[in-house]
Predict the structure of MMPL family transporter.
Amino acid sequence: MRQILKFKWPIAIALIALTAVLFILSPNLTKQAEEAGTFQLPENADSKIAADLLEEAGAGDETISVVFTYDQPVEDKAQQTVSSIAEELEGEGSLIKNVLDPFESEELTEQLVSKNKQTVLLPITVDGTDEEVNDLANRIREDMIPDDTTAYVTGEAIINHDVNESAQKGLERTEMITVALIFVLLLAVFRSITTPFIPLFAVGITYLLSQSIVAFLIDWIGFPVSNYTQIFLVAVLFGIGTDYCILLLSRYKEELTEGHSVEDAIVNTYKTAGRTLLISGLAVFIGFAAIGFADFPIFKSAVGVAVGIAVLMLVLFTIVPFFMALLKDKLFWPSKQSASHKDSKLWTRFGRFSINKPIWSMLVVAVIMVPLLFTYDDQLSFNTVNEIGSDYESVKGLDAIEEGFGKGDSLPVKVILQQDEAIVTEELLPYIETISNDIEKNEDVDSVRSITRPAGEVIDDFYVDSQLSQVAEGLNEATSGLNEVQSGLTEVQKGLNQINGQIPSGSNAGGLEEAVNGLGQVNDQLGAISQGLQQSQNVAAASEQLGQVQQQLGQIQQGLAGASSDLQGQSGQVSELSGGISDLSKGVGSSIDGLNEIKNGLQDAADLVTNMGNSNALRDTGVFIPKGTLDNEEFGPAIERYAFDEQKAVTLEVILKEDPYSTEAIQTVREIKETVSRSIDGTPLEDATVAYSGVSSINSDLSDISTSDFTRTVIIMLVGLFIILTVLFRSMIMPIVMIGSLLLTYFTSMAISELIFINLLGYDGITWAVPFFGFVMLIALGVDYSIFLLDRFNEEASIGIMEAMHRSMAKMGTVVITAAIILAGTFGAMMPSGVLSLMQIATIVITGLLLYGLIVLPLLIPAVVVSFGNGIWWPFKPKKR
């Protein structure tokens, strides 16, 4: 320390200059956090796979919606306004890929206009960065929507942008409130105008330098970053930085009042309080550094605080002694005393009770905290919208969609299947329909839209029972047609018999009688064919037999033509009969045409049945897509909407009955994943890549990943703290007591937070990221206060365990309570941020620090320590008296 004091000016100038240069040159941390995104999922997450797959296939388009709301059913004028905006959007530029005018067709009107006709959706498919999409949304709001029209622009990118914007505004408010709050608290603690500026300057330098270093690390090595990075840097550095400054300045004041020179006072301060500072800083550093072992990028983003802690230690050992040496006793002007040196009357009273009656003290803590633990449900919320509230337009639009169309329709779950070969074929689409059908069986699924059911409704014609029913109807029609042909030919036969009876003997019309006989035979054959068709339904045989009958009728028609020609050459009445034969010949021709239609129909039915018999998909699924279906113009829009990547991939849109952000939706997504896995097992699609996207899918991934990552990271963090505390305190019991007491405090604080936000304020749960960050903050920061107490206890141990604990509590009580109040105050500055997750984290930390400082530390830990006696240093040797 003397060397640092010797070169205090060069060191201080260099550090301040370095901070200024790095601050000017460093990237914008706020911009980096926004670019990283609200949700950062690992590469193996289903939603991340889906996003990458869509991006690689050039299908990473996103849909935003203009939501129009009306007090009355939409009228012609409003319809024209919507259509006009749609037309204007289509010419807006390359960013917009498609615009669906809800009044372009009846089908679109049915899908995009609510049943009460008071909500109208104008979907816009866009392909661009989040920044470009939000710029487009602003242009739509400002330039296209008339002033007398109520309309909102919403979509996933817009909601995420609003969340980021809200977080940044919250950060700005937090920074200002934190600085003002700390200044006021330091005035109260030191009763000096000068003193508060030293911690604020030191912590300010720390924050600016840390922020710059973290920003460079993000650019250079891909250091994790999120909105939480900057916010936690502010809260933690200003909080514990101020606490550490209080510890140093208080001890410095004490050394000066004892008559030491300025230099000796500084050196003694860093020998005593500096040691405690290093232990505490190291513990906090390990706590936040352990976060680096997390897989989840959002969790890892708090590791930047570890960088801040390292910088804080550097500043506290350079800048703070610089001001101590520079200002000397003027550092405390105009105060002559510091309230922080007085023994804590509150902790002294607590100490008498907890040390003399340890069992009763532990029971008191149990009575206070255990009932709260039984109320803890670990009820989480994944509703991003709750983060920003309903004042934002994107949220109002989402609410309007939910009210008009149902909750699930606003943000569907997308199931994506992709393989190396074409998936849009008649042979494979039945499996897509089976997947759609299996998903829809889930009671929490409202409908499924896919390439085989584009409107979300089942197409019965694709199912074999419907197709066989149609074939049966065709056979009945064919039988009826044969009966009609038989009747026609019977009439022709009668007519020919009449004509034959009127021809005088000796006339040349012998072919007429043969025709009459032939018609009789044909009718008999048709009757046999009809009967055989009804009995055996042998379509192919019937078709072949009809071909033979047609040939016979052709010959009869030729014979009639010859007879008519022969009679025409004769005179008198006989010649007139040729006209009747000619008319009857036409009747035979009509019969031939009728049989031809029947034959073609039977041939089509035969081909259909044959193809069905040869279809593996039909045997597997009960679904059959007839050949030529995909070439039908009416099927084109479905292929365009639900197929991509040169028809090697398809999308299924699953509309949920529940709110897409709800925990019920997460469970439904898990069930959908299991359903799809079962549906494709053993099919030609079993090797296809399956991925899921959409809000509910992302939240499902967040739930699974955050839970496993939380468990693993917490274990690493606690093990790291246990090892370092064991080494520093030369005891395995003390670290267990410290960590155990912090865990008790954490879960009690979580229970209280649930009571406040769920039971009292009516939120659907604690935001999913809050338990992790609340745990890290409370454990890493709360361990400081147990270190303050037990490190002093170790120093005093030579006078006896009970007496050492009494003295330690009296001396450290004010320091701990003051530090806890200041740290709680810095987190309290998050409350006006308006960001729900920050408010919940602040509640957990504030509640935890107050519980720890006023109940656990003064009542539980002393009681446990004195109960162990010398065993508190196990397995090491106890302190010598």
